[in-house]
Amino acid sequence: MTNIALGDIITKIFVKEVHIMNYNEYIEYLKKSSGRGICLGLERISELMEKLGNPQNKTKIIHVAGTNGKGSFCAMLSAILKSAGYKTGNFSSPALTGITDNFRIDCEEITEKDFTEIMDIVYPACESMTDKPTEFEILTAVAFELFARKQCDIAIVECGMGGDTDSTNVIASPLLSVITNIQKDHTAILGKTIDEIATHKAGIIKPERPVFFGGADIPEIIEKIAHEKNSPLFTVDYSDIKSCYPAPVCSLDGTSLMYKGMKINLSLIGIHQFENAVNVLNCIEILKNQGFNIPYKAIKSGLASVKWRGRFEILRKNPLVIFDGAHNPDGVQNLSYTIEQCFDRKKLVFLIGVMADKDYNCYADILREHTNLVFTVTPDNPRSLDCQTLAGSFSAKGIPACAFHDLEECVKSAYSYAKEKNLPLIAMGSLYMYKDFINALDKI
Question: Are 83 and 301 a contacting pair, CB within 8 Å?
Fold first, then answer.
C-alpha cells in the first residue's frame, strides 16, 4: 500500500465524523489552530505524518535551516532545478500574501483548489488526534502531502524556526541538509549565544547524509555533530565564484557575479543575495556529484528569472518604494550595505514595523547614515513591538521618528513625504507586515 493510498483511506475513515470544508473554512480552521501558539517538538507532527502514511519519505528533499537567507536560497535553488528540467516543490514561511504563498510547484504558487484538495486529506487526520497540531505543523503536513501527490522530483523545505524541534525535521534522510548561516535571532526560544542557536540548527543533520554550512565561521558544534553522525560536511568554496569587481556587486537592476569565468545576472537585489547565490552554487556542485544533471545554462537562466517577494523588492518607481524583510542585526546591516551600493550617500525615508522580540535598539546606529526621518508602525500581530517604543529608540539617538498605530495612516504619511521630497521610501521589518503594506500602498 502506498502512502498516498493510505492518506485517501484515512479521509474515508474520518469523513463520516468530520465535515470536509471549503477553502475559506479551512483558512478559519488554521486561524483557530494558530491560537495554540508555537509549540516546538516532533511528537504531534510525527503522529500526524504516521496517520498520513509518512509522505515526507516519498520525495527527495533538501532541508534548509539558518538565521538569514533561507527563503532567497530556496527560491534560487528551486529556479535552477526547474530550469534543469526537474519538477520542484518549495515550502517556506511566513506566507506573505495568503496561505497558498507557503507552497510552490515549479516556482509557481499553488492554487486555492490545490490547497483545499490537500487539506481534505490532512484535516481529518488532524481532527483524529487527541493533542491537536499547531498551525505550522498542519502547513508542514500539507507541504509533504502536496509534494508526494504532485510527484515532485525534488523539494526544498525551509525550517520555520531552529531545526531540531521544528516540525519540518521529520525528514529521515534528506538529499542534503543546508544551514545558511548562524546569527542571533529568536533568542528567547533558541538561546542567547551563537553556540546555543547553532545546536538547534544542527538538529537537521542526519546520519550519513551530506550537510552544507554557508556562514563565514562554522561553529564547532556543527562540526562535532556532523562528525558524530558520519555526515559529510561541506563549507563555502569561492574558488569558482567571484564578484564583478570593480563594478558594483548590486544595483537596482539586480546582482552580478562571475561563476567559472562567466558572468551571471541575478534578478534579486542585494549584497546579501551575492552570498546567498554563492551558497546555492556550492550546493549545486554537491548535487551534481550525486548525479543530478544541472548544466550551466540552467544555472544562468534560473538565477536570471528567480522571483522572491519582500526581499529588497521594488514595488513602485515614482517615488521609489522598496520593501525588505530585514529585522535582525545581520539583516539590517546587509540592508545598509545594499543601500550604499544602490543609492550612494542619498538620504532615504524609512517605514519600520517589527516584532517585540527583535534587537531593534541597533537599528538607529546601523541606519543613521541613510536617513533623516523614520516612520514607525505597530504591525497587526499580537507579537508586535509598539510603534512608540520603536520611535523612541530612534529619537534617543538623534533621528526624528513619527509613530503610527494604524498602518494605512503610516503608509499614507510616509509615501506623501517621500514623494514631496523626491526621496526613496524603504519599508522594512517583519514580513508579517508585507501583505498589509501592499494593500495600504494600493489605496494611494
Answer: yes
- Cis peptide preceding 55, ω within 30 of 0: no
Q: Which three cell numbers stand for residue 214?
A: 554557508
For 245-270, give one letter per residue: b (16+ CB within 10 A) or e.
Answer: eeeebbeeeebbbebeeeebebbbbb
Find residue 373's DSSP bridge partners.
349
Residue type (1 letter), 54: N
- Model pLDDT, residue 80: 98
Q: Measured between alpha carbons, how far is 52 from 50 in angstroms, rounded to an integer?
A: 5
Residue 41 C-alpha from the chain's centroid: 20
Alpha-carbon distances, residue 57 vs 60, 138, 155, 180, 189 (angstroms) = 8, 17, 11, 23, 28
pLDDT beneath 70: ranges in the chain: 1-19, 37, 184-192, 245-248
CB 325 within 8 A of CB 334: no
Q: Of 39, 63, 9, 65, give the one whose Cα is nearest residue 138.
A: 39
Predicted confidence (pLDDT) per residue in 333-371, tens digit? 999 999 999 998 889 999 999 999 888 999 999 999 999
Can you read off the three cell numbers belonging to residue 163?
531545526
Element (H, E) at 317: strand 313-317
- How far is the C-alpha of 395 from the C-alpha of 140, rounded, in Å? 42
Domains of the chain, with CATH numbers? 3-305 (3.40.1190.10), 313-442 (3.90.190.20)
Q: How far apart are alpha carbons 136 and 93 in whole angstroms?
A: 9
Type of residue at 398: G
Cα 306 to Cα 240: distance, rounded to the nearest angstrom? 21
Residue 393 grid coordinates: 529608540
Cα(first)–Cα(last) distance of the chain, in Å? 56
Q: How far apart are CA 337 and CA 242, in angstroms?
A: 18
Q: Which of 326, 77, 332 is nearest to 212 (CA)?
A: 77
Cβ-proximal residues to 297 (8 Å cutoff; 6+ apart), any chain: 83
**Widest CA span of the chain, in angstroms?**
67
Amino acid at 44: R
Contact partners, residue 105, CB within 8 Å, separation at least 6 = 87, 88, 89, 90, 114, 146, 150, 152
Distance, CA of 90 to CA of 79 (rounded, Å): 10
Amino acid present at 376:
T
Q: Are strands 320-324 and 371-377 parallel, antiparallel or unpaired?
A: unpaired
Q: What does each C-alpha distance from 432 to 38, 318, 383 come to in angstroms?
A: 16, 25, 10
